[in-house]
Design brief:
By secondary structure, the protein is α/β, with parallel strands linked by helices. Helices cover about 40% and strands about 25% of the residues. The two termini are about 40 Å apart.
Length: about 170
């Protein structure tokens, strides 16, 4: 992923965080919440970049890894502690707070199903590939309606009282 590929990613992200912190009036703490923090690689990369730049933000930063697994959060704490950033994760933070949310490769990895009600029935929308004349002879992604992949889609809509319009 980007944090591991090249140091320029972390440098740009770190400078963006410093900019946001300054625009918001240098709040202390400045909360950095990471949804889908994973292994903590992005956090470590950002904290290392802030440390390398000698940024004052590092002293005000309160990093909050948003993960479902307490074990994963503990592994992130250990990783960052081993890298010299233990104080950042261990700060007591009152949420919500002033800061920012990052979600590298999180939102694009969420499982999402798109459906529509057409011609009196439920359709699931899939992604297809077209090489037609409309694309100028080049391929492009298209939306392809089809039979729902599972009856659970209709059951879920019914259970939540969702009545799709035509």
């Amino acid at each position: 992923t980007a944090p591991e590929l090249h140091p320029i990613y972390r440098a740009v992200m770190a400078r963006t965080l410093v900019e946001q912190w300054q625009i918001l009036g240098r709040p202390d703490p400045f909360v950095l919440r990471e949804d889908g923090a994973g292994s903590g690689a992005l956090a470590q990369s950002l904290l290392d970049a802030l440390a390398a730049d000698g940024s004052d933000l590092l002293a005000a930063l309160a990093y909050v890894p948003a993960e479902l697994s307490p074990g994963r959060v503990e592994r992130i704490r250990e990783r960052l502690g081993d890298a010299g950033h233990r104080h950042v994760v261990d700060r007591t933070v009152k949420l919500p707070g002033t800061g920012t949310v990052i979600a590298n490769e999180y939102l694009d990895a969420l499982p999402v199903t798109r459906v529509e009600w057409r011609d009196g029935r439920l359709w699931e929308l899939f992604v297809g590939w077209s090489m037609g004349e409309l694309a100028g002879g080049e391929g492009r992604f298209t939306e392809v309606p089809g039979e729902p992949s599972t009856i659970a889609l209709a059951e879920r809509l019914a259970a939540e009282g969702i009545d799709l319009g035509e």
